Amino acid sequence: MDDLTGKKPAPPALDPDGDALFLDFDGCLVDIAPRPDAVVIPESLPQVLARLSAKLGGALAVVSGRSLHELERFLLGYDGLMIGSHGAEARGMTPPLEESPDDLAALQTEMDHFAQQQGLLFEKKSHGGALHFRADPSRQPEVEAFTETLAERFPAFAIQPAKMAVELRPDGFSKDGALVLLTQLPQFSGRMPVYAGDDTTDEPALAWAEAHGGFGIKIGDGKSAARYHLAEPSDIRDWLAAAVEE
Ligand SMILES: O=P(O)(O)OC[C@H]1O[C@H](O[C@H]2O[C@H](CO)[C@@H](O)[C@H](O)[C@H]2O)[C@H](O)[C@@H](O)[C@@H]1O
């Protein structure tokens, strides 16, 4: 991993006959917004994903930390593969996690209570939750300390750092773990994995793509295992649109 992101080249054109494509959602397909519910979905995005998935013979998946039902709502019109909740949920293949850990409700109650007391934003998720401090980044240390105690008390959950947020997700699930499962599906056979993402949540998956004959595309600045770089979500959307039109 290095921090030469800005000096890394733009990715080559997608090979529809040989590549498989995995796309992160927040900060990659869509721009970061002040709140999770404020993201703006470009009107053409679901159709671009649908057409590209068809072109790749179905070897395309959206891979996100978001709850699956939210992704489905945001990307209405794209019916292809989706991974949600940092690898715990799936559409189009057997869900990696069949049932939420027993103490999900208790965990979410405590996170919600903390958020209300501290004036933070709590995002309730299918298999966990996130405490967002984008509105006041100075709150990061308190959020980190609180989520550490929660992870000790609720061992079925693990800490997942995110952009201006700390999440608790089911322990043992990850985006790279989801790639292992996805690439066992027949439509991925013989294809090279290409993963695009922007965040620490994506790094293991970017490294996985690099280690399995494909490549990673880091969106935005920062250290990354990816060999290619694009500055912002509009750049990856342009790259996808070009791949559709080729
Ligand atoms: O895996 P991703 O698709 O990148 O999702 C990661 C988390 O993204 C969301 O939070 C982030 O984006 C928000 C909207 O732009 C922003 O307000 C927040 O500060 C970011 O952390 C989402 O809310 C989480 O559930 C995802 O896990």
UniProtKB/TrEMBL annotation:
Catalytic activities: alpha,alpha-trehalose 6-phosphate + H2O = alpha,alpha-trehalose + phosphate
Function as written in the Swiss-Prot or TrEMBL entry: Removes the phosphate from trehalose 6-phosphate to produce free trehalose.
Pathway(s) of this molecule: Glycan biosynthesis; trehalose biosynthesis
Broadest EC class assigned to this enzyme: hydrolase
Biological source species: Thioclava marina
Keyword set, alphabetical order: Hydrolase, Magnesium, Metal-binding
Keyword check for Nucleotide-binding: no
Descriptive protein name: Trehalose 6-phosphate phosphatase
